[in-house]
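yo, Glutamate 5-kinase is done. seq:
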Amino acid sequence: MSVTESDVRRAIAGARTMVVKVGSSSLTQPSGHLDVKKLNSLVAALSAASAQGARVVLVSSGAIAAGFGPLGFESRPSDVATQQAVAAVGQGLLMAQYEAAFGRFGVRVGQILITAEDTIRAVQYRNVQRTLNRLLELGVVPIVNENDSLASNEIRFGDNDRLSALVANLVRADALVLLTDVDGLYTAPPSTPGARRIGFVPNVIDTIGDVQVAGSSSGVGTGGMVTKLDAARVAAVSGIPAVLTSATNTGPALMGDPVGTVFAPVKHRGSSRRLWIGFASDPRGALVADAGAAKAVRGGRASLLAAGVVEVHGEFSAGDPVWIDDEAGAHLARGLAGFDSEEIPQMLGRNTAQLRRFLGDEFAHPVVHRDNLVLV
Ligand SMILES: Nc1ncnc2c1ncn2[C@@H]1O[C@H](COP(=O)(O)OP(=O)(O)O)[C@@H](O)[C@H]1O
Ligand SMILES: N[C@@H](CCC(=O)OP(=O)(O)O)C(=O)O
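structure:
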């Protein structure tokens, strides 16, 4: 039997662990500066959920919004270096507001700043996961943001929508709540005449093609509806129901009332780390597999061995995300490279015994291990 809207709303209302993402546009005044009243009412709604036993992870944007006013800028700066500096100032100011606001309800908060780069690597990934879980066990509300001041331009999320879906996957959340400045997903950008709110999306993968979505129009938000739908898709394929609504609807959305747009999960839970590899990262290069290796990779459980690689493109380090392509140039998979791009040419076409004999033990490994590979 297929999942109905009320099933999804009930699942969200009953969620034990939830990830709530709030965008800059819901925490700011029209001028772009932080709006403490909006922040306080969000915190009141989340504290009520926490008092009822929910474990809440808050993914909050707003560091740049909180920082540019105090530094004397009239509007959100657009160059990356200034944004990163502004975020360093704003993140502290934002946390001070959250600490005070949650403190009034007796709730402790902890700050976690994540870069996409740290978390696609296995060791850091497990560290983030372990810290978040421990904070939740201790009854703390983790407040997550991208580490804007350190994230490198090529591999930053930029918006927090996709980050929130990946965090939901990481903590195995029962619900993802996306809070923004519109009351849901519309059939077209809300200013378009005739645009209507969609209450229920049974399969976000099918819906993405039918809905007209655009980027942010607020001047403070980043990704607009495009990245929110990406987030809903990551949640859906992770088996997590999601709701998208305005921050002013937080209380009703968490109670399962018919507000916003709810997205049904489309799959059972997948492995968390593989989702990071698939969605979180922009490949730095490509490995071209010969016909035999392409067939093995497509089959699902094989590593990519040097013997089946015919070309290497791009510059990357061991641990970076890369495409695995077939000889016709079609993408087969994404994976994390086991070696630097300069090390791979001498390995091409050699089997494990030859790699060991000619290059040493440290080369007798797959170019991409199957645990670090996801089909596309
Ligand atoms: N189909 C659509 N439905 C709803 N909103 C849309 C759509 N297409 C574009 N948008 C825009 O997306 C904006 C929300 O994204 P954004 O400004 O990035 O918010 P946030 O700061 O919360 O991430 C809305 O204000 C709206 O103008
Ligand atoms: N990490 C940035 C978030 C950037 C941003 O605007 O994100 P969003 O409002 O979620 O589209 C910040 O804290 O300012």
